[in-house]
Amino acid sequence: MTTFEGALFWGFLLVYGVVMYVLSPKSKTADSFYKGADDQGNPVGQWSLTASIFISWIFAKSVTNAANLGAAYGVTGGLAYASYWLSIPVAGYIIYLIRTQTGARSLQDFLTSRFGRLAALAFAAAILIRLYNEVWSNTAVVGGYFGLPGDWEYYAAAMLFTLFTLAYSLKGGLRSSIFTDVIQAVVFVFFVGAVLFLIVPANDTSALLSNGEFRLDAGFDLLLVALLQMFSYPFHDPVLTDRGFVNKEKTMLKSFVVAGLLGFVAVFIFSLVGVHARLNGIEVMGNAPAAVGQSLGLAALFFMSVVMMTSAGSTLDSTFTSLAKSLAVDLPRLAQRASERLPSIRVGAVVMVIFAFAGNLPMFAGTDILKATTISGTMVMGLAPVFLFYGLTRWSPWSFHLSFWTGLGLGVLLAVGLIPASWAIGEGKYALLLGVNAYGFLLCSAGFLLPLVLRRLAGRSLAAGEA
């Protein structure tokens, strides 16, 4: 960077951190810190909740991945990644059913009531892994606009960004997270529009929107993966699911539907950044937004960095608040070592501080941010039958465990390269991932249904014997 560029980028980072801290409200009660209520105990409003869901799920790594896939496969890649946002309305509807049919106040409450405490603990462990990944995978994207991995600027920017986000998260918890999400959503939309204003006129619009092919070896395999993971992926992300219990059922459902559709459109539109790179022969080197920004000049690169900071900030503060709730509230209740009363704010604050630093350790080791989505989504495929078919049983711990651990086992085998090539569907880059998710869904569903079938058969045999 030149001196002027450095002053611009570092200056914005400093201004962003100070403004977010000053504007974010301070939580005075545990209800406000952990549940997002205001000082009078009123729940989050519908449009604030919608904006929060929308922006907190548009991770910095997500828009980067969408642009990279656009560069690799054209609009097919963009649609593939944007399809993950359609899982938000799916999750909202299922949470709506859970709340109205079972009266559960959280997913942990629901799982405990239907599948036992051990099932809820296994689920809690899965979401903690997910939250841990969210820290480094977002701060690393921000660092990439200040330097390359290995450069001090890269790590300094990532850690400074972490400290700023931690500061206002400690100040207000979930209430602060949702409040700042609204601001970040507005800034995000404005600067994405500014980026498009630079990109669209530089291309033939029809070519920009039609580049790509719907073939398994051209990105369509990843689109099918996203559609399969739609029924499991959102449930291991408390950043999303915690927001399903902070307002009335119908208000929540409307917010989830609108936020999901807006997110789909926003992510697909941003993937056109990568399509622009593909059409113009720009070498993306794993970071299409940065590469395109550099090719279009300083203004475009600055716009890209603002998009990344706002999307990363909205996700990171939500991650901190979800970690605080998971470790300070949910896990102690599952262990039966806490009452229904919420813990003090200080307990959640300590959790945030620990994970702010521990969560960045993988960034220093270096890893692929796309794997934080695709691999973790595969490992929790066993959650799909649990939430889709829960109405078939009142109590069946074995159904949860046979489904959940089957999916987790397949995800681990895929991650370490032990899934045979014969499982692949097609010949594309994601052929094996598609095969594991398709066959895995069938195996997990069979695992979930097996105890129910055996119980019914045993009941019939008993009835026949009595007769």
UniProtKB/TrEMBL annotation:
<feature type="transmembrane region" description="Helical">
    <location>
        <begin position="214"/>
        <end position="235"/>
    </location>
</feature>
<dbReference type="InterPro" id="IPR038377">
    <property type="entry name" value="Na/Glc_symporter_sf"/>
</dbReference>
<feature type="transmembrane region" description="Helical">
    <location>
        <begin position="256"/>
        <end position="277"/>
    </location>
</feature>
<feature type="transmembrane region" description="Helical">
    <location>
        <begin position="402"/>
        <end position="425"/>
    </location>
</feature>
<keyword id="KW-0739">Sodium transport</keyword>
<feature type="transmembrane region" description="Helical">
    <location>
        <begin position="369"/>
        <end position="390"/>
    </location>
</feature>
<feature type="transmembrane region" description="Helical">
    <location>
        <begin position="431"/>
        <end position="454"/>
    </location>
</feature>
<dbReference type="Pfam" id="PF00474">
    <property type="entry name" value="SSF"/>
</dbReference>
<feature type="transmembrane region" description="Helical">
    <location>
        <begin position="297"/>
        <end position="324"/>
    </location>
</feature>
<keyword id="KW-0769">Symport</keyword>
<feature type="transmembrane region" description="Helical">
    <location>
        <begin position="6"/>
        <end position="23"/>
    </location>
</feature>
<keyword id="KW-0812">Transmembrane</keyword>
<protein>
    <submittedName>
        <fullName>Sodium:solute symporter</fullName>
    </submittedName>
</protein>
<dbReference type="InterPro" id="IPR050277">
    <property type="entry name" value="Sodium:Solute_Symporter"/>
</dbReference>
<feature type="transmembrane region" description="Helical">
    <location>
        <begin position="115"/>
        <end position="132"/>
    </location>
</feature>
<feature type="transmembrane region" description="Helical">
    <location>
        <begin position="152"/>
        <end position="170"/>
    </location>
</feature>
<comment type="similarity">
    <text>Belongs to the sodium:solute symporter (SSF) (TC 2.A.21) family.</text>
</comment>
<keyword id="KW-1133">Transmembrane helix</keyword>
<keyword id="KW-0813">Transport</keyword>
<keyword id="KW-0915">Sodium</keyword>
<feature type="transmembrane region" description="Helical">
    <location>
        <begin position="182"/>
        <end position="202"/>
    </location>
</feature>
<keyword id="KW-1003">Cell membrane</keyword>
<feature type="transmembrane region" description="Helical">
    <location>
        <begin position="72"/>
        <end position="95"/>
    </location>
</feature>
<keyword id="KW-0472">Membrane</keyword>
<feature type="transmembrane region" description="Helical">
    <location>
        <begin position="345"/>
        <end position="363"/>
    </location>
</feature>
<dbReference type="InterPro" id="IPR001734">
    <property type="entry name" value="Na/solute_symporter"/>
</dbReference>
<keyword id="KW-0406">Ion transport</keyword>
